[in-house]
Design a protein that fits this description.
mainly alpha, Serine Threonine Protein Phosphatase 5, Tetratricopeptide repeat, two-stranded antiparallel sheet, 8 strands
Length: about 500
């Protein structure tokens, strides 16, 4: 199916079907004239189109999962030598950087727009298929716009496919975030109306993942009671449970389809998707030095916990033990000559010989071009910790502590939160955010957590100064990414985010 879709997309682009940021694509033969003759005629057409929408989703988040949600925070420091890494870590992003492009995101939105308009017009499509595919299209559009407002703030709100029709806006201006928020929530509600209670695959949007998205959106806007309601509805589905032990925790990343925590994952196959995704090159490469490694303060947090299995499921402590002359792994181990390739997303092979020391057992780190980690977009621990934050804000602190304690106990860390060590809202919020940082390291969440809790300057000002940026996080407007230079060449109505320039 993937090859079929890639061929189809090539035809669609040549004939003007697909949305593009460049003006020359906007002058092609109107899609409405082509589509009824050449497409949207059979249920198979709908299947192919939805597959293509997910293909766009993969292209949107393949590397940007980390660029947009992870590396600008305090989780990582530079391990490789790339300029882009340094730009992210020192808050010196520019509009010419490819990571600031929204082109793939808007192509995915365009795919959703076409699906919403045309799938209901296809004859002889079973009603359950129409409902499911429309639900996926609405949910995907909501998810893409949610990424957009968190990254750029005001962006163009495009809700219909561009078809070259008379009067159709070629150069949409940016809409206010409140307007886009309303549309995101409307799309979520439409998706929930379409979805039934089934859970066919972690690789497709569903009622469960849409409820997870709804909770995430409400938390972004500090709407705690609404976030609690969304998580209530997710839990009422009775389809997800926390992993109960260390091996089951590891399966969340190495065998997510069998994990009871997985809600929505991004599928990736390097043979079909044109190479590896960003997991290997960013943190876990078997062919190159990774771009980033864990920052020492977070390493120290894990070491201080002693029995927390997330430490040795994030980094190969056996290798560290050998490199440290078989001395217990400690805070000082951070300074050893170690590759700092993360093992969080890869499997362990007990028969694999060490390339450096005389022992059997090692992780199957993929080459950059062969990484096919199925990246978690939403999983139960993530949503439960958001729920804990919301419960804390609502004054339901015992319930919030119970969530954190259950998440800790399943990985062997038994120092529990109590009313004595988290006596008020502020201390409990801090504990929850640290737990999210440990639990969700490398999963594209930390930067967004810092923004929505208004802690960017507090946390990153000293971190940036440590990295040699004398003024620290000097301009809070830099929380937003710049809009890519190419956008201004094709759309005169776009205004650059301050304080960035257009080039």
């Amino acid at each position: 199916m993937k090859r079929t879709f890639n061929y189809l997309i090539a035809v669609l682009i040549l004939t003007g079907f697909a949305l593009s940021g460049c003006e020359d694509f906007l002058d092609k033969q109107p899609i409405s004239q082509l589509s009824r003759d050449k497409f949207w005629n059979t249920p198979k057409d709908a299947d192919i189109w939805i597959a293509g929408m997910y293909d766009g989703f993969q292209k949107t988040l393949g590397d940007n999962y980390y660029n947009w949600g992870e590396v600008r925070g305090d989780n990582s420091q530079q391990a490789g030598t790339g300029t882009a890494q340094l730009n992210f870590l020192t808050n010196t992003i520019t509009a010419s950087m490819g990571e600031c492009s929204w082109s793939n995101l808007y192509r995915t939105i365009s795919s959703a727009n076409f699906a919403i308009k045309y799938i209901p017009t296809i004859p002889n499509v079973p009603e359950p298929q129409i409902a499911s595919q429309l639900g996926q299209a609405y949910a995907m559009r909501a998810l893409m716009y949610f990424y957009a407002i968190r990254i750029w703030g005001p962006v163009p709100l495009v809700l219909v496919p561009y078809e070259g029709l008379e009067g159709q806006e070629k150069f949409p201006a940016q809409s206010d975030v409140d307007v886009i928020k309303a549309q995101i929530l409307s799309d979520i509600d439409n998706a929930l109306l379409k979805f039934d209670n089934s859970f066919p695959s972690i690789y497709k949007l569903s009622r469960a993942s849409t409820l997870a998205l709804k909770a995430d959106v409400h938390m972004w806007f500090n709407e705690y009671d609404l976030a609690i309601t969304a998580t209530d509805n997710l839990l009422l589905m009775n389809k997800f449970t926390l992993a109960t032990n260390e091996p089951d925790w590891k399966k969340i990343f190495t065998d997510p389809a069998s994990s009871t925590e997985s809600i929505f994952n991004m599928y990736w196959d390097f043979l079909q998707d044109g190479g590896g995704n960003g997991v290997a090159s960013f943190y876990g490469s078997g062919s190159n030095t990774p771009k980033y490694k864990i920052r020492q303060p977070l390493w120290d947090t894990l070491i201080s916990r002693g029995s927390d299995a997330r430490l040795w499921n994030m980094y190969d402590t056996v290798d560290l033990w050998y490199r440290g002359d078989k001395v217990k792994v400690t805070y000082e181990s951070y300074n050893l000559n170690f590759s700092w390739v993360s093992c969080k997303f890869v499997t362990w092979d007990p028969a694999k010989p060490s390339t450096t020391y005389n022992y059997l057992g090692g992780y199957n780190y993929p080459a950059n071009s062969e990484s096919q980690t199925h990246i978690p977009i939403y999983r139960l621990s993530d949503i439960m910790l958001l729920r804990a934050e919301a419960l804390n804000k609502a004054g339901r602190r015992t319930e919030a502590r119970d969530i954190v304690n259950n998440i800790r106990k399943r990985v062997g860390y038994n120092k529990l939160l109590t009313a004595e060590n988290t006596p008020d809202e502020a201390t409990l919020e801090y504990a929850i955010l640290v737990e999210r940082q440990v639990e969700l390291w490398g999963e594209g969440k930390r930067w967004f957590d810092l923004i929505r809790t208004d802690k960017v300057k507090e946390v990153l000002d000293p971190v940036l100064k440590e990295r040699g940026v004398a003024d620290g996080f000097d301009d809070i407007r830099k929380i937003r990414f710049p809009i890519h230079t190419s956008v201004f060449e094709s759309n005169p109505n776009i205004v650059q985010n301050e304080p960035y320039t257009q080039n």
